[in-house]
Amino acid sequence: MKIKFYFAVLILLLFTWSLSAQTPRDPMAGIDPPDFNRVGQTGWQFLHLPTTARTAAMADVKSGLIHNDASAIFNNPANMAEVENLDASFTQINYIADISYMTAALAKNFGAWGNFGVFFANLDIGEMVRTQNVYNEFLGSTERSGDLGTFTAGDVMIGLAYARNVTDRLSIGGNVSYIEENLADTEVKNWNTDFGLYYRTGFKSLRLSMVARNFGPDTEFAGFNELYGVPQSVRMPINFRLGIGFDPIPASEDNPHELSVYLEGVHPNDGPERVHAALEYKLMKVLSIRGGYKFNYDEQGLTLGGGVHFYMGGMSGRIDYAYLDYGRLDTVHMFSVGFAMD
Predict the structure, then answer these.
(1) What is the tens place of the pLDDT at every residue in 122-144?
(2) Which end of the chain is more exposed for a tag (fewer CB within 10 A), N or C?
(3) Rg of the Cα trace of the chain?
(4) CA 165 to CA 68: how far, in whole Å?
(5) What are the residues whose beta carbons fall under 8 Å from the beta carbon of 31, sequence distance 6 or more?
(6) Residues sharing a CB contact under 8 Å with residue 167, sequence separation 6 or more, in sequence order
């Protein structure tokens, strides 16, 4: 038992060292580096948005989760291996600035072949007023033109997922997806891949999880003309996560209470390192109360939510809600529904 525990701790330390090794170092000893967080250097920002109400209510933690379903595709794809038969999940979020975002996932267990899934996401920014900069020769400055009509923007993602249990302790999984972004008359397309690993240490309920998301080549917008300027290279928003999950009050036949805690470190390539902390309480496997906090964000912080799990014959269903505090921007509410055939 101790050897397995030490092995789990070793994996945690190695991954932490890996994240640290990728952080830019001070090029000149003795001189403080500038405050530079790589913000705005990648595209495809919709891939950073919350995708399910359950995880959104828990500070967007994607590591170490239990009771996973088809929505694991958007978190740690290795957790999709927990789907026992057929599972479907749908989420709608009315984001800030009237932005609408929806996700859907379907997963099926094929026994010894592993679990396969399909997923879809769509971001609709809606109509915006088109303007352009006009040079005022009298003032010698550039000013905003009048309204020139409207334009729309949005993103679409469709993909395939796979996961399987390698042993009774280790699960692996991955996604491959096609993504497309439209902005007025321009568009950009790309391929995206995600990888996940989930390890049950055997030390009580301690679980380790590693997730690497949003790998793909750099691309450029198509459809540029003299109005839009020079085409810009678009990088993928790569995101590494390492986290743990633990149940101080584990589920059992004699105990209607279950409490799980989660801690996750995040290393994005377009922002500072961040930490997510969350807990989830379940009563009689029916009612859930969730909460979390995101550290080192400009406007995000507290997250809250809950859910109901119910049974209907040979099927089960779930409804989840999340409240997200975006500081000066606004609050966001999101709902998820899901169904499973046992």
Answers:
(1) 999 888 888 888 888 888 888 88
(2) N
(3) 22
(4) 14
(5) none
(6) none
